[in-house]
Amino acid sequence: MFRRLYNALKSGRYRLEKSCTNGNNKEFDDIINCVIESSTKKNEYFLKAFTDNIVIGFPENNNNHMRFQEIISKLARFQFKMIEKDFFIRGAISYDDAYIDDYEGESIEAINPRIILTKSAVNAIDRYIDRHPNLTSSDKIPSSWIKRNLLEDSDGKWFINYLNAAFLDFFDYNREPNLEIILKHKELVENNLEKHKENNRVWLKYVWVAHYHNFFCNLHPEYFSEKHKITITYNSYDFKKISLSNEITLKEE
Fold first, then answer.
1. For residues 206 and 192, is the Cβ–Cβ distance under 8 A?
2. Position 107 in a domain
3. What phi and psi values does residue 218 have, to the nearest 5 degrees?
4. Residue 138 falls inside a structural domain
5. Does some domain include residue 125?
């Protein structure tokens, strides 16, 4: 039994590596090392792969508010690194023993190339948002961080705002974005829209990414102009910044 499980995991990792890096195992390992292993001790996470799925787990600790921020930042980096290899992934974040919650989130609710937060994850993070007066300053997740790193989709699901990586130098936040990252993302999405135009089911996933790309550009008009946006007239999505109070939210135009 354990041998079959090992072989399944080994086979799954190989398939994942091959599909996202053209069979270059070192390239896949470099992505994992850059995003996960370089700043995380081996006993602080586990990584498994099966069929075309990858599971990354992090244990709880006494600083869960910081762990949540760390995990979301690392997954955003991982997602963006995979996209740079033209591999648009989807997934879900769950909390505690909510494995079914996680599976259903990835397979049923994520749908588009996004990493969503399931109900268990949203509830866990909500306990640490700085709007709660009973928390000390050292136990809080700043609401500004939530709004910068997460967005709300038209179906109400929170998802990782991975394009925020344009403002990151590894995990340090910069005031100005790397414009080349946005232009590269634009090129990849446009290429896939053209490539999959005869396959409506796949094409619609890249329509979603195109609208997300434009929404992100609209969030930062001081940096991004029309040349950074994707021309897309089909469909529309009501993306929002996370609203934690009675605030005005920015919608896609």
1. yes
2. yes
3. -65, -25
4. yes
5. yes
Position 84 in a domain? yes
Please calculate the CA angle 111-179-34 and round it to the nearest 5 degrees: 65
Contact of 118 with 102, CB cutoff 8 Å:
yes
Dig out the tokens for 139 from the structure.
């136990």
Nearest CA to 181 among 129, 128, 223?
223
For range 129-144, the mean pLDDT? 68
**What is the per-residue pLDDT for 182?**
95
Burial zone of 100 (CB within 10 Å; 0-12 exposed, 13-18 middle, 19+ buried): exposed
Q: Which SS3 state, helix, strand or coil, does residue 83 take?
A: helix
Reported as a pLDDT band with limits 50, 70 and 90, residue 97 is low
For residue 37 the two structure tokens come to: 């292993």
> What is the rounded end-to-end Cα distance, in angstroms, of the chain?
54
Q: What is the pLDDT, as a whole number, of residue 168?
A: 75
